[in-house]
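Hello,

Our lab assistant flagged a job as stuck in the queue for most of the afternoon. It eventually completed. Since we weren't sure the result was trustworthy after the delay, we are filing this so someone can double-check. Below is the sequence as submitted and the structure that was eventually returned. Let us know if re-running is recommended.
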Amino acid sequence: MKGVKDILRIAAILFVVCGLAAGALSFVNLATKDRIAAFAEEERVAAFKKIFPAAESFTERPPAEAGGGVTAWDAVAGGLTVGLVQLLEPMGYSGTIRLVYGVDAAGALTGVQVLEHTETPGLGAKITTAAWTGQFKGKARDQVALKKDGGAIDAIAAATISSRAVTRAIHDAMAGGN
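-- returned structure --
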């Protein structure tokens, strides 16, 4: 009988420890979730400002106007809409890539900013570099494809899947007429 009592005692101790750990994690989550959300919002606005430096504000479009279930914002300067910023989430090599891109009133790309990714460090992660994202600036929809696919964008060596995921997502989203 001593073996059963030992097992029950150990199980009770594990139950209490797990309950305390879960409670502590819940407390930390509650205490930090607002700060984390505020930081994410600051990062998003900073990315928008890199795409449209002259914009004074960004007004979210209603989902019906954004098209295709995507999230989009009008870039506003001087009370006028000067372009569009859109959030995309294509699948890359290692997972979802969250990015925003901007298009001016003439339909040319104003910039691309990668917000989150899980691409391979040193390879696919190069989609975040200014050298690579800078290629998109000023491009029209028909130029937004990798050079090997007939476009004007250089693929990242050894990271074609990541490069193609970003270019195809932007190309397809620009086709939506937003």
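-- support follow-up --
The delay was a queue issue, not a problem with the job. The result is valid. The chain has a mean pLDDT of 88. Strands lie at 57-60, 71-77, 80-88, 98-104, 109-116.
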